[in-house]
Write a structure and sequence with these properties.
The chain is mainly alpha-helical and 123 residues long. The protein folds into two domains: 63 residues, no CATH class; 37 residues, no CATH class. The chain is built from five helices and no strands.
Length: 123
């Protein structure tokens, strides 16, 4: 009969740190030489908290960079991610007036506009 796994404080710290770094659970389990189910059974709190704590540290760092006035990219990212800002791209099509275009010409122009917008917006 296999021995029961007994987690130690060292195991808990290691799982928390590895989870915070984004190491997949299967890899953490392999490192500890246990099954992934055993990992989740004994280390649920460490798996959850490690990831959360890492996100908090990165968010604090990003916030400090964004509010220091020295990192414009961080400020822009923060406003897009947290404040809902987005860049708007306006595409002006200079072509014949729609009333002067055939249906086929109009459909081609609409398709070109959509393609250009998707390329600009990256969608």
């Amino acid at each position: 009969m296999p021995a029961l796994f007994e987690p130690t404080g060292e195991h808990r710290n290691l799982v928390r740190a590895m989870s915070g770094l984004g190491i997949p659970q299967q890899d953490i389990a392999t490192h500890l030489e246990i099954d992934a189910k055993t990992l989740r059974k004994h280390f649920r709190r460490e798996l959850d908290r490690g990831s959360i704590e890492a996100t908090v540290k990165v968010a604090q760092s990003l916030f400090q960079m964004a509010t220091s006035g020295q990192n414009t990219a961080a400020a822009i990212f923060w406003m897009k991610a947290r404040a809902g800002w987005r860049e708007k791209h306006e595409l002006v099509v200079s072509a014949k007036i729609a009333g002067e275009m055939t249906d086929d010409e109009l459909m081609e122009e609409i398709a070109r506009s959509r393609t250009a917008r998707l390329t600009i917006d990256g969608e």
